[in-house]
Write a structure and sequence with these properties.
Hypothetical Protein Yjia, Chain: A,domain 2, 2 domains, about 20% strand, binds guanosine-5'-triphosphate, Rossmann fold, alpha/beta, five-stranded antiparallel sheet
Length: about 375
């Protein structure tokens, strides 16, 4: 059955480099939109899809695709899931959040070329969330780099920059995010570089991806013919066909590796905070949630991307939850075994647990309260 234009569900694909602010944007849109019933599909590269939990209202409206990159390894899953979604429930917009290592073009192709998908969906808006702070450091040779950049390693930095160029080139709406961290003159420079790469897109400066939902939902902005005419698109389309054959779904794409630390035993707040202050080299992205001995009922969230760190309560564990720490670490040359051992050292000992249970613990809890 071929559906008419009006029946096709508009699709917004949100892409952007690791930690740029994609989940923040999705949450923002879900919170603020009133005109549309939005379904969300999130893809995360770790074995645990912490993004699904970090998206507000994650219960019913968020579909997860885990343990791979939606642009290659999970491509068939993506097609199957979105077709199933359209058959099972009615909604009037689909928001796809790609993992920070996904390239947007192969995802777009699923919506354009897979018949079962394209007869139900209409590719509507390609959104790129750009980490203006990261872009500033990557492209401005004058910039004095903070220590953490040296930790990232130049090779992976270069490869990530390639992905970034793709993301700037093929989008309809571009959020220049994290503007709070970048000085005005640098922002002007970035804007002019971005304009050269992509004169067609609507460019918006944002902090915490704060933008009106109608800027990214059902905009009608995606224009395949215009995009196809650009030389870059043809080249990338050819490359992305080749790219189908290789798998970068095991957390080793673009020189980036990841692992997930899990434990049902809570952290001692003082030791865990001290460990966070030290921070392991090579890790430039971390996210997920953790247990603290002092707050057994609270879901504590950790989100770190470059200089942005938040660690604090994000909710209460529910009855059907399985409380545990699940932290995903992403970076270049990440020393997984050493980090696991350090985190194990932060876990409460049996004695400390007994003190906490008996209400006799003298430990201080430096983390923020709700
Ligand atoms: N200072 C600052 N921090 C921000 C801004 N936007 C997002 N963040 C923080 O950056 C971190 C990463 O944001 P997310 O929305 O999780 O990023 P993401 O693109 O979904 O990350 P991945 O899915 O891992 O690629 C979080 O700690 C956010 O609170 C911003 O405009 N300014």
């Amino acid at each position: 059955m071929t559906l008419g234009d009006d029946d096709e569900i508009p699709v917004t694909i949100v892409s952007g480099t690791l930690g740029a602010g994609k989940t923040t944007l999705v949450n923002h849109v879900l919170e603020k939109q009133t005109d549309h019933d939005v379904a969300v599909l999130v893809n995360d590269m770790g074995e645990v899809n912490v993004d699904a939990r970090l998206v507000a209202g994650a219960d019913d409206d968020v579909i997860e695709l885990t343990n791979g990159c939606v642009c290659c390894r999970l491509k068939d899953d993506l097609a199957t899931e979105v077709v199933r979604l359209a058959e099972e429930r009615s909604f009037d917009c689909l928001l796809v959040e790609a993992s920070g290592i996904s390239e947007p073009l192969p995802i777009a192709r699923t919506f354009l070329e897979e018949e079962a998908v394209s007869e139900r969906y209409r590719l509507d808006t390609m959104v790129s969330v750009l980490d203006a702070y990261g872009f500033w450091k990557e492209f401005d040779p004058e910039t004095e780099r903070p220590n953490e950049d040296e930790e990232r390693g130049s090779e992976s930095g270069r490869e990530l920059a390639d992905v970034l160029v793709d993301q700037v080139e093929f989008c309809d709406v571009l959020l220049l995010n994290k503007c709070d961290l970048v000085p005005e003159d640098a922002l002007e420079n970035i804007e002019s570089v971005v304009r050269e790469l992509q004169p067609r897109a609507g460019l918006h400066r944002t902090t915490r991806s704060d933008i009106a939902p109608e800027t990214v939902l059902d905009t009608g902005l995606f224009d395949f013919d215009a995009v196809r005419r650009s030389a870059g698109w043809k080249r990338r389309l050819a490359e992305s066909h080749e790219h189908d054959d290789h798998d970068h779904g095991n957390g080793n794409a673009h020189g980036v590796t990841s692992f997930c630390y899990e434990s049902e035993r809570p952290f001692d707040p003082e030791r865990f905070e001290a460990w966070m202050d030290e921070w392991p080299s090579g890790v430039y992205r971390a996210k997920g949630f953790f247990l603290l001995s002092t707050r057994p009922d609270t879901v504590m969230g950790l989100n770190r991307a470059g200089p942005s760190v938040t660690a604090g309560p994000i909710g209460q564990w529910r009855d059907d939850d399985d409380p545990a720490t699940r932290l995903v670490f992403i970076g270049a040359d990440v020393e997984e075994e050493a980090i696991r051992a350090q985190l194990d050292e932060c876990l409460c000992t049996d004695e400390e647990m007994a003190d906490v249970d008996a209400g006799e613990s003298a430990v201080s809890d430096p983390f923020p309260r709700a």
